[in-house]
């Protein structure tokens, strides 16, 4: 089991920045990828960013490339998402996730999830 707790969400104006953090506990050594997903009202949950937990490979959705940066510290069991140049369309609940099943498909098939943190970007 892996437990995930997000923090750092809030309200920000368009063009501003926020940093989300995810504290992981439990069998974190079993994770292959740590990721961030988001779900806006009325929309399906979508992939945002991921990092390989035993290396430094990162992956991003096209919509956030160049604006968001994911970082991880597996010694501290923390994963952060730095979000810059925020847009109103970034408004969503952001979820931290862990994938312990395999090394493939870093953008999907995560099996552990946090409860989410709300990010609201005003125009």
How is this structure best described in words?
The chain has 123 residues and is mainly β. It is 0% helix and 52% strand. The protein contains no helices and eleven strands. Strands 2, 4, 5, 6, 9, 10 and 11 form a seven-stranded mixed sheet that branches. The protein is globular and about 40 Å long. The model has no long low-confidence stretch (mean pLDDT 95).
Could you outline the blueprint of secondary structure elements for this entry?
Blueprint: E1 2-7, E2 10-13, E3 18-26, E4 33-39, E5 46-52, E6 58-60, E7 68-73, E8 78-83, E9 92-99, E10 112-113, E11 117-122
Parallel strand pairs: 2-11
Antiparallel strand pairs: 1-3, 3-8, 4-5, 4-9, 5-6, 7-8, 9-10, 9-11
Q: What is the compact description of this entry?
A:
The chain is mostly beta strands and 123 residues long. 0% of the residues lie in helices and 52% in strands.
The number of helical elements comes to 0
Number of strands: 11
Q: Main sheet?
A: 7 strands, mixed
In angstroms, what separates the terminal alpha carbons? 40 Å
Tell me the fraction of residues in β-strands, as a range: over 45%
> What percent of the residues sit in helical stretches (DSSP H or I)?
under 10%
Quickly give the structural class: mainly beta
Order of helices and strands: EEEEEEEEEEE
Radius of gyration: 13 Å
Q: Please tell me the overall pLDDT.
A: 95
Poorly predicted regions are none
**Principal-axes shape call:** globular
């Amino acid at each position: 089991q892996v437990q995930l707790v997000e923090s750092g969400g809030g309200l920000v104006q368009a063009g501003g920045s926020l940093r989300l953090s995810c504290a992981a506990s439990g069998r974190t050594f079993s994770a292959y990828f740590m990721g961030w997903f988001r779900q806006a009202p009325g929309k399906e949950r979508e992939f945002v960013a991921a990092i390989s937990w035993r290396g430094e490979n990162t992956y991003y959705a096209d919509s956030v490339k160049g604006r968001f940066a994911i970082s991880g510290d597996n010694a501290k069991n923390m994963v952060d998402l730095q979000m810059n140049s925020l847009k109103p369309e970034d408004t969503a609940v952001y979820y931290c996730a862990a994938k312990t099943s395999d090394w493939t498909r870093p953008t999907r098939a995560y099996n552990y999830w946090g409860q989410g943190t709300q990010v609201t970007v005003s125009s």
